[in-house]
UniProtKB/TrEMBL annotation:
InterPro entries: EF-hand-dom_pair, EF_Hand_1_Ca_BS, EF_hand_dom, Peflin/Sorcin_CaBP. This is Sorcin-like. The lineage of its organism: Eukaryota, Viridiplantae, Streptophyta, Embryophyta, Tracheophyta. One of its GO terms (cellular component) is cytoplasm. The keyword Metal-binding applies. Gene3D superfamilies: EF-hand. Pfam families: EF-hand_7 (PF13499).
């Protein structure tokens, strides 16, 4: 879905009431039509990541940005899944690096395990997207605290709780 006109058509179909915005519930069912199944919490997180006007829903322009991210994730996934429909953890690691996230082993395996919905060591596209949404949200949040860009932050307990609850999926 690179084409803006196609995106517009898709958006308008989802926004059946023509409000100019789509809600988490609408986005969730629209993605499910494309055989991508996400818990509503993940869809809410997708919206939060690109909800530039902070109204809790997704405008067309916000959706275009989300779609760019999803496309990048999907391409990294497709490049490694070898038509099996899933990635094993090592491949997911490689795909994450392609997207621009390189985590160390403990962080990666912990995050990988928590998004392996079927507990089989196989991440399907929707699992992998959820994982990427989480890592991107964590990155955004981290950057908002790492104002001097040192790659390191100090948090007090309240800030830690704030971060943990913002990233929870
Ligand atoms: Ca919005």
């Amino acid at each position: 879905m690179e084409n803006r006109a196609i995106l517009r058509e898709w958006f308008d179909r989802v926004d059946s009431q023509r409000t100019g915005n789509i809600t988490a519930t609408q986005l969730k069912s629209a993605l499910a039509v494309g055989n991508l199944h996400f818990p509503v919490s993940v869809v809410q997180q997708m919206i939060r990541m690109y909800d530039f006007d902070r109204n809790g829903t997704m405008s067309f322009e916000e959706f275009v940005q989300l779609n760019k991210f999803l496309l990048k994730v999907q391409q990294a996934f497709s490049g490694l899944e070898r038509e099996r429909g899933y990635l094993v953890p090592d491949e997911a690691y490689e795909a994450l690096v392609k997207i621009g996230f390189s985590l160390d082993s403990p962080a990666f395996y912990t995050v990988c395990e928590s998004f392996d919905q079927t507990r089989t060591g196989k991440l399907r596209l929707d699992d992998f997207i959820s994982l990427c949404i989480f890592v991107q949200s964590a990155r955004n949040l981290f950057n908002s605290f790492d104002t001097s860009k040192q790659g390191r932050v100090t948090l007090d307990f309240n800030q830690f709780v704030y971060c943990a609850s913002n990233c929870r999926i």
